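It is worth pausing here to work through a concrete case rather than discussing structure prediction in the abstract. The textbook approach is simple: state the sequence, then state the predicted structure, then interpret. We follow exactly that order.
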Amino acid sequence: MDEELLPIGQFARLSRLSVKQLRHYAQLGLLVPAYVDERTGYRYFRHEQARDALSIGLLRSLDVPLAVIAQVLSGTSGVLEEVHERLEAELARRRSTLSALERVMAEGLPSAPVTVVTEPARRVAVVTTTAADPSDIGAATSAAIAGLLRAGPSDAAPELIGLFPLDFGEPVTVTVALVSEERVAGAELDVLPGGRFARATHVGPYDQIGLTAYALLSWCAERLCPVRGPIREVYVSDPATTPPDRLITHLMIPLEEL
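Step two, the predicted structure:
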């Protein structure tokens, strides 16, 4: 055996990793020992491998997945950009959650005036897409709206309605409807049913609509109102010209007859 080989314990101290971590990375093929004693199973490493070991420790501390670390060590370029995008998206979600929490802290648990309204049936152009999970609903909705606006008529202010399931699973079906009598490229013509709805108005950023939805569902539950999905979001304001804290959205839940 090469005298320059380091036993796993010594190499662990040199690389700032635990023996357990080194064994795990060896099993994954991420950091393969230079030599394994066939009789004892002891693992040995060369000191030149310390840089890779320290790199693994550094990248793991930055929340880089092991699969991506393997690509980095192999010299694949551009892979850390995807991790950066993921972390940025997670940070945005955390900021949104913090903002909603601060609003609850300042105003208390959400409450909103609720009215029962009767809506007519409407002819609509519909686009249905899928969000990978609840955190992706905003992006999926925005993409669907952008597609409808590009293809829809430009001679009048668009009437846009989002339709979402009452209970989110994974993935989440997201539907956006544009009130229109005419066909819209990339969309299907449909009829949005009318009927009786419980309606509350949300004023504020779209990512805080869940607060008003809570108030609306609480109102229904307290009155034993049977509800059915989907919940509707009627977008009153133009986000291109309206500050986020002044966006107006009507939330509507179809009511079943007792």
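Step three, interpretation. The chain has a mean pLDDT of 92. Helices lie at 8-15, 19-28, 50-61, 66-73, 79-107, 137-151, 209-222.
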